[in-house]
Amino acid sequence: MSTLKIFVATMYGGSLDVAEQVKPLFEDVGYAVTIHEQPTLEDLAEPSAALALFCISTTGSGDYPGNFAALARDIAEQGPDLSHLRYGLIALGDSSYGDTFCGAGRALDALLEEHGAVRLGERLEVDAMETFMADDEAVPWVEAWIAEQELSRT
Ligand SMILES: Cc1cc2nc3c(=O)[nH]c(=O)nc-3n(C[C@H](O)[C@H](O)[C@H](O)COP(=O)(O)O)c2cc1C
Hints:
Blueprint: E1 2-9, H1 14-28, E2 31-36, H2 41-45, E3 51-57, H3 66-78, E4 86-93, H4 103-114, E5 118-119, E6 124-127, H5 134-148
Parallel strand pairs: 1-2, 1-3, 3-4, 4-5, 4-6
Bound molecules: flavin mononucleotide (FMN).
Protein backbone atom coordinates (compact mmCIF):
# COMPACT_ATOMS: atom_id res chain seq x y z
CA MET A 1 0.00 0.00 0.00
CA SER A 2 1.26 3.51 -0.78
CA THR A 3 1.96 5.71 2.18
CA LEU A 4 1.45 9.39 2.89
CA LYS A 5 3.03 11.19 5.80
CA ILE A 6 1.36 14.32 7.11
CA PHE A 7 3.78 16.61 8.95
CA VAL A 8 2.17 19.05 11.37
CA ALA A 9 3.54 22.35 12.69
CA THR A 10 1.14 23.92 15.17
CA MET A 11 0.81 26.02 18.32
CA TYR A 12 -2.88 25.78 19.11
CA GLY A 13 -3.96 22.74 17.13
CA GLY A 14 -5.45 24.33 14.01
CA SER A 15 -2.97 22.63 11.67
CA LEU A 16 -3.39 19.33 13.49
CA ASP A 17 -7.14 19.63 13.02
CA VAL A 18 -6.60 20.16 9.28
CA ALA A 19 -4.36 17.08 9.18
CA GLU A 20 -6.99 14.97 10.93
CA GLN A 21 -9.78 16.21 8.65
CA VAL A 22 -7.92 15.48 5.40
CA LYS A 23 -6.46 12.11 6.50
CA PRO A 24 -9.57 10.10 5.49
CA LEU A 25 -9.56 11.69 2.03
CA PHE A 26 -6.25 9.97 1.33
CA GLU A 27 -7.31 6.73 3.01
CA ASP A 28 -10.39 6.66 0.77
CA VAL A 29 -8.14 6.62 -2.31
CA GLY A 30 -5.87 3.88 -1.01
CA TYR A 31 -3.14 5.44 1.14
CA ALA A 32 -1.86 4.38 4.53
CA VAL A 33 -1.59 7.73 6.33
CA THR A 34 0.45 8.70 9.38
CA ILE A 35 0.29 12.07 11.12
CA HIS A 36 3.57 13.30 12.60
CA GLU A 37 3.06 15.75 15.46
CA GLN A 38 6.73 15.72 16.53
CA PRO A 39 8.34 15.31 13.11
CA THR A 40 12.00 14.39 12.81
CA LEU A 41 14.48 14.46 9.96
CA GLU A 42 14.48 10.65 10.05
CA ASP A 43 10.73 10.65 9.29
CA LEU A 44 11.30 12.92 6.32
CA ALA A 45 14.52 11.58 4.89
CA GLU A 46 13.67 7.88 4.77
CA PRO A 47 12.97 6.72 1.20
CA SER A 48 9.49 5.45 2.10
CA ALA A 49 8.51 9.09 2.70
CA ALA A 50 7.97 9.59 -1.02
CA LEU A 51 4.78 11.59 -0.63
CA ALA A 52 4.13 14.09 2.13
CA LEU A 53 1.71 16.80 3.08
CA PHE A 54 2.77 19.64 5.37
CA CYS A 55 0.16 21.43 7.49
CA ILE A 56 2.05 24.34 8.96
CA SER A 57 1.11 27.41 10.98
CA THR A 58 3.24 30.47 11.68
CA THR A 59 4.06 31.98 15.05
CA GLY A 60 6.15 34.88 16.38
CA SER A 61 7.19 37.03 13.42
CA GLY A 62 7.12 34.48 10.63
CA ASP A 63 8.59 31.73 12.85
CA TYR A 64 8.17 27.97 12.94
CA PRO A 65 5.95 26.58 15.70
CA GLY A 66 7.94 24.94 18.50
CA ASN A 67 7.11 21.37 17.53
CA PHE A 68 8.64 21.92 14.08
CA ALA A 69 11.64 24.13 14.85
CA ALA A 70 14.08 21.23 15.41
CA LEU A 71 13.20 19.62 12.06
CA ALA A 72 13.59 22.90 10.16
CA ARG A 73 16.96 23.46 11.86
CA ASP A 74 18.11 19.91 11.07
CA ILE A 75 17.21 20.29 7.39
CA ALA A 76 19.09 23.59 7.19
CA GLU A 77 22.14 22.37 9.12
CA GLN A 78 22.45 18.76 7.95
CA GLY A 79 21.58 19.38 4.32
CA PRO A 80 19.82 16.07 3.58
CA ASP A 81 19.09 15.00 0.01
CA LEU A 82 15.30 15.18 -0.25
CA SER A 83 15.07 14.53 -3.99
CA HIS A 84 12.88 11.46 -3.35
CA LEU A 85 10.22 13.66 -1.79
CA ARG A 86 7.05 14.97 -3.49
CA TYR A 87 4.91 17.12 -1.27
CA GLY A 88 1.92 19.40 -0.85
CA LEU A 89 1.86 22.32 1.54
CA ILE A 90 -0.98 23.92 3.47
CA ALA A 91 0.10 27.05 5.35
CA LEU A 92 -2.08 28.62 8.06
CA GLY A 93 -1.53 32.25 8.90
CA ASP A 94 -3.11 35.60 9.54
CA SER A 95 -2.71 38.48 7.10
CA SER A 96 -2.95 41.00 9.93
CA TYR A 97 0.71 40.05 10.61
CA GLY A 98 1.61 41.77 7.32
CA ASP A 99 4.94 40.78 5.77
CA THR A 100 5.28 37.66 7.88
CA PHE A 101 1.96 36.23 6.61
CA CYS A 102 2.41 32.45 6.37
CA GLY A 103 6.12 33.06 6.91
CA ALA A 104 6.86 29.58 8.27
CA GLY A 105 5.00 27.85 5.43
CA ARG A 106 6.79 29.94 2.84
CA ALA A 107 10.19 29.41 4.48
CA LEU A 108 9.63 25.66 4.66
CA ASP A 109 8.60 25.53 1.02
CA ALA A 110 11.85 27.27 0.03
CA LEU A 111 13.91 25.03 2.35
CA LEU A 112 12.44 21.81 0.93
CA GLU A 113 12.99 22.98 -2.64
CA GLU A 114 16.59 23.92 -1.79
CA HIS A 115 17.17 20.30 -0.76
CA GLY A 116 15.71 18.75 -3.88
CA ALA A 117 12.11 18.04 -2.84
CA VAL A 118 9.44 18.82 -5.44
CA ARG A 119 6.16 20.48 -4.54
CA LEU A 120 3.11 19.14 -6.34
CA GLY A 121 0.66 21.91 -7.20
CA GLU A 122 0.46 25.34 -5.62
CA ARG A 123 0.85 26.07 -1.93
CA LEU A 124 -2.44 26.70 -0.11
CA GLU A 125 -2.36 29.71 2.23
CA VAL A 126 -5.28 29.94 4.64
CA ASP A 127 -5.83 33.40 6.11
CA ALA A 128 -7.45 33.43 9.56
CA MET A 129 -8.74 36.93 8.77
CA GLU A 130 -10.93 35.45 6.05
CA THR A 131 -11.52 31.82 7.04
CA PHE A 132 -12.59 30.97 10.58
CA MET A 133 -12.24 27.20 10.19
CA ALA A 134 -9.17 26.29 8.12
CA ASP A 135 -10.76 22.91 7.28
CA ASP A 136 -13.38 24.69 5.19
CA GLU A 137 -10.66 25.64 2.72
CA ALA A 138 -8.29 22.75 3.26
CA VAL A 139 -10.71 19.87 2.62
CA PRO A 140 -11.81 20.98 -0.89
CA TRP A 141 -8.21 21.94 -1.68
CA VAL A 142 -7.02 18.42 -0.79
CA GLU A 143 -9.83 16.85 -2.82
CA ALA A 144 -8.73 18.88 -5.83
CA TRP A 145 -5.06 18.14 -5.14
CA ILE A 146 -5.67 14.39 -5.10
CA ALA A 147 -7.53 14.64 -8.43
CA GLU A 148 -5.10 17.04 -10.15
CA GLN A 149 -1.99 15.15 -9.10
CA GLU A 150 -3.63 11.82 -9.92
CA LEU A 151 -2.83 10.50 -6.47
CA SER A 152 -5.73 8.07 -6.38
CA ARG A 153 -4.55 4.48 -5.81
CA THR A 154 -7.94 2.82 -5.98
C1 LIG B 1 1.77 34.83 18.95
C2 LIG B 1 1.30 34.63 17.54
C3 LIG B 1 2.09 35.02 16.48
C4 LIG B 1 1.65 34.83 15.15
N1 LIG B 1 2.47 35.24 14.10
C5 LIG B 1 2.03 35.09 12.84
C6 LIG B 1 2.83 35.52 11.74
O1 LIG B 1 3.93 36.04 11.89
N2 LIG B 1 2.36 35.33 10.48
C7 LIG B 1 1.14 34.75 10.24
O2 LIG B 1 0.75 34.60 9.08
N3 LIG B 1 0.36 34.32 11.27
C8 LIG B 1 0.77 34.48 12.54
N4 LIG B 1 -0.02 34.06 13.57
C9 LIG B 1 -1.35 33.48 13.28
C10 LIG B 1 -1.36 31.96 13.29
O3 LIG B 1 -0.44 31.41 12.38
C11 LIG B 1 -2.77 31.49 12.90
O4 LIG B 1 -3.69 31.94 13.89
C12 LIG B 1 -2.86 29.99 12.76
O5 LIG B 1 -4.16 29.66 12.28
C13 LIG B 1 -2.65 29.27 14.09
O6 LIG B 1 -2.62 27.89 13.80
P1 LIG B 1 -2.46 26.75 14.93
O7 LIG B 1 -3.80 26.63 15.62
O8 LIG B 1 -2.12 25.53 14.13
O9 LIG B 1 -1.37 27.11 15.87
C14 LIG B 1 0.39 34.24 14.90
C15 LIG B 1 -0.42 33.86 16.00
C16 LIG B 1 0.01 34.05 17.30
C17 LIG B 1 -0.89 33.65 18.44
